[in-house]
Amino acid sequence: MAKRALITGITGQDGSYLADHLLDLGYEVFGMIRRSSTETTSRIEHLEDRVEFLQADLLDQASVVKAVETARPDEIYNLAAQSFVPTSWSQPVLTGQFTAMGVTRMLEALRQVAPEARFYQASSSEMFGKVREVPQNELTPFHPRSPYAVAKTYGHHITINYRESYGIFAVSGILFNHESPRRGREFVTRKITDGVARIKLGLAKELRLGNLDSERDWGYAGDYVRAMHLMLQQDEPGDFVIATGRTHSVRQFLEIAFGHVDLNYEDYVKQDPRFLRPAEVDQLIGDSSKAKNELGWVPTVSFEDLVVMMVDADLALHGA
Ligand code: NAP
Ligand code: F7E
To answer: Which one of 83, 88, 124, 125 is the catalytic residue?
Structure first.
């Protein structure tokens, strides 16, 4: 019989790639969607006939319980969150409700109606924040630098706590930044590739950004969802860092993205203090050797290929 998976956050970047991957593997996929007055399903339009959608909101315990009850999942992937770091300073309480307490609501729903289901929590490299060691691995202490990262740190620990308290097969993937043509346009990579496409096609004259010196370990989202699935297929539950092991600055991203269309980023990029953060994470670089050894997971898309893939996709979207 086909395995059943429930994905929260299925309308987001990772949810859409994970749904693609699980359907390819023969899963029956259920997707939790919150009510909206506007369409939020553009990333999963191609899957509408193959996924069963369940309306629920992470803020509403009864709706979450109902979704788990209906899906009767073998596996739950908890990807839903308020995931944009700057918004976590302007809406810190809501971010805590979604990104921290939302995890407990999902775990409680699982405990109540599907205690045998395996649970994946979307943890984040942002938990390392002001890093204590380089590179960061599963044992590196956390020092979160934003309300988002604090909320994710809670979600990480409550997942481990439910594993230890109730024997639930609950794992946490500490994923470093991962991007794709389906990335939200407010995140820096997509903001840049969208900006490059607009500038190249004469639709915009400049691109306003914040800190160009911060460095991230950027990978491809399609690679990272494979790791989520692998984590739930192990004999014992455990936590894994997923990263490429290479770090690059926003400036290097700009050089490659503008260079790909024969432009120089310095002619178009303006620094704008509105995009600076109250506390910055300067550099992240992950050590995913545990994932390589135990899951057999390795990334397949290089940084350079990722940038080019995203620029080309945005050029195509704008009609080039
Ligand atoms: P994303 O594109 O921002 O998607 C977030 C998803 O959460 C959307 O489907 C959104 O639904 C849903 N959501 C938000 N609030 C909700 C609520 N109250 N009830 C139900 N659903 C809600 O994020 P992503 O990049 O795919 O990331 C997936 C997860 O991994 C997130 O938890 C993120 O924090 C975490 N993460 C991401 C990265 C990364 O680099 N991408 C790295 C580490 C961890 P709507 O469409 O209705 O808004
Ligand atoms: O910023 C700098 C900014 O917003 C990356 C989320 O998926 O990954 C993501 O969080 C860097 C930061 O991602 C702009 O200051 C400069 O240093 O693309 P971002 P993030 O904050 O790293 C982690 C792993 C998650 O878990 C999160 O959910 O780029 N930057 N200028 C800018 N960033 C933005 N957004 N906009 C700018 O104009």
So the answer is: 124
